[in-house]
Write a structure and sequence with these properties.
Elements: H1 2-27, E1 40-45, E2 57-62, E3 73-75, E4 82-85, E5 89-93, E6 99-102, E7 108-109, E8 115-116, E9 137-140, E10 145-149, E11 157-161, E12 164-165, E13 172-174, E14 180-182, E15 194-197, E16 199-201, H2 207-244
Antiparallel strand pairs: 1-2, 3-16, 4-15, 5-6, 5-12, 7-8, 9-10, 10-11, 13-14
C-alpha cells in the first residue's frame, strides 16, 4: 500500500513545483526582456540495495532550459530605452559582482552618472561600469556607443560603448536572479550585435499557453490527491479486515 501512497505523494509535490515554474512565467508576461523558462516532468526510478524498491518510479519536475527567442519590439520613443535587434545580450554587473547578461534595455542614469538597468544593475562598458558626465542629452547608437552633449558644448562627445556580447546559447544559463550567465566566465565583445534605440523588447511568454499548462497541472494535482485518499481508504479497510481475523 505504501507504493501507491508515496508515488501519489511524490507526484503531487512535483506538480506543485511545475506550477511554480509556469506561474513565474505568467507573472513575468509584462517584464521587459524576460525569457520563458521551460518545464518538464520525467520518471525517475528508485535504485536501492533492496530489490523491492527497483519496481518503483517517481516523477521528477525539472527546468531543462530557457527559451531565448526574441520577444516583441515595443516602441517607447525614450532615448535611453534600447532593445537588442536579433541575437545578443547587454552586459551588466550582477548583485554578486559577476558579469551577467540581460535583454532588458530600460536604462537610466542615476545621480552619480552611472548607467543602470530598470532593475538598478550597472551597465558595463569597455572598462567596467558605464559612467557619463553631467549632461543634458545622452544618446545611444545602434552599435552601443554612448554619446553625450554637455552643457555649453557644440556637438556630441563619445564617452564609452555598452558591452554587447553574443555567446553560444548552449553555454548560457539563466539563474534564479533572472540574469543569464556564460558558463566560461566573461564573453567577448561582439561587434555585430546591434541595438534599436527608442524600443524595448517585451517578454516572450505566451500567456494563453501558460494558463493552459497551469490548469492541466491543477487537474493532475487533484488526481494525485484522490489517489492518496484511495490509498488511505484501502489501508483502513485492510486494517478492519485484520481485526475480524
Amino acid at each position: 500500500m505504501d507504493k501507491a501512497l508515496y508515488v501519489a505523494m511524490g507526484g503531487a509535490k512535483e506538480m506543485m513545483l511545475a506550477q511554480r515554474a509556469h506561474a513565474n512565467n505568467l507573472a513575468n508576461v509584462n517584464t521587459t526582456g524576460f525569457k520563458h523558462d521551460f518545464a518538464q516532468a520525467r520518471s525517475m526510478q528508485v535504485f536501492s540495495e533492496d530489490p523491492h524498491y527497483d519496481t518503483r518510479a517517481y516523477v521528477m519536475t525539472e527546468r531543462p532550459g530557457t527559451n531565448f527567442e526574441q520577444g516583441p519590439m515595443i516602441q517607447t520613443g525614450n532615448a535611453l530605452d534600447v532593445a537588442v535587434a536579433g541575437d545578443g545580450w547587454i552586459a551588466v554587473q550582477s548583485p554578486s559582482g559577476e558579469e551577467a547578461y540581460t535583454r532588458a534595455g530600460n536604462l537610466h542614469v542615476d545621480v552619480n552618472g552611472q548607467v543602470r538597468t530598470g532593475a538598478g544593475l550597472p551597465v558595463l562598458g569597455g572598462g567596467g561600469p558605464l559612467v557619463v558626465p553631467p549632461t543634458t542629452t545622452v544618446e545611444i547608437g545602434n552599435d552601443g556607443t554612448v554619446s553625450v552633449l554637455a552643457d555649453g558644448a557644440v556637438g556630441l562627445a563619445q564617452v564609452d560603448r555598452i558591452k554587447l556580447v553574443n555567446p553560444p546559447s548552449e553555454n548560457l544559463e539563466k539563474r534564479e536572479d533572472g540574469l543569464v550567465y556564460f558558463s566560461e566566465g566573461e564573453a567577448e565583445v561582439d561587434a555585430l550585435v546591434r541595438l534599436s534605440s527608442g524600443f524595448l523588447e517585451g517578454s516572450n511568454v505566451n500567456a494563453v499557453n501558460e494558463m493552459t499548462e497551469i490548469l492541466a497541472l491543477t487537474r493532475q494535482y487533484e488526481m494525485q490527491v484522490k489517489m492518496m485518499t484511495s490509498a488511505q481508504e484501502n489501508s483502513e479497510a485492510s486494517a478492519r479486515l485484520l481485526q475480524f481475523s
